[in-house]
Amino acid sequence: MITSPSSVRRSERSRRAILQSALDLCTERGYGHVTIEAIAARAGVSKKTIYRWWPSKGAVLLEAFSDALIDATPFVDTGDIGADLRAHVAGAVKLLSVPPFGPAYAGILSELHHDDLLARRLREELVDPRVEEAIGRLRSAQEQGQIPPGADLPLAVEMLYGPVYYRHVLRKPVQDEETIATLVNHVLRSLRAPGY
């Protein structure tokens, strides 16, 4: 079946309306009170349309969150790994600290324990690609001589993200600029990066 340009536009418009409706409802009602029925009604689509693209509300909100996270936390390379990591982590902290994204992600994480499909999608669609991008940025710094050869880059990524998600999941106060700088410095020092 050939898809016409107008149907592609309609599909993308519907997809965007669904994602935005899910986020809006999450802000208004809280993750636990969002339903596929409510998302469909708010977006002006049928439940069948939603289920054609996503298996659950968690999957809808995961896609909405992933889109926002990628936009808010790019992996830039200015030539200064410390500055780049501070900017990257600050973007993630900021996104997680405001509705609807913080509550949406907390809700998604709470569902992982009883939704194996959502857990797999989270790893495959969000976590694994972002970890690979982070490792790629650290590898670039390694090639520039800012991180020594042989440093454990995957572990460094876990050390960077771990405190951010620990605070988010336990609803502790978010890191400020100074705390983020300290975190980045500790991680780079653990890699024995020059100047840290």
UniProtKB/TrEMBL annotation:
Top-rank lineage group of the source organism: Bacteria
Keyword DNA-binding listed: yes
DNA-binding region: 35-54
TM segment ranges: none
Domain HTH tetR-type residues, every copy: 12-72
GO molecular function, one term: DNA-binding transcription factor activity
Keywords, comma-separated and alphabetical: DNA-binding, Transcription, Transcription regulation
Signal peptide boundaries: none
Coiled-coil stretches: none
Protein name: TetR-family transcriptional regulator
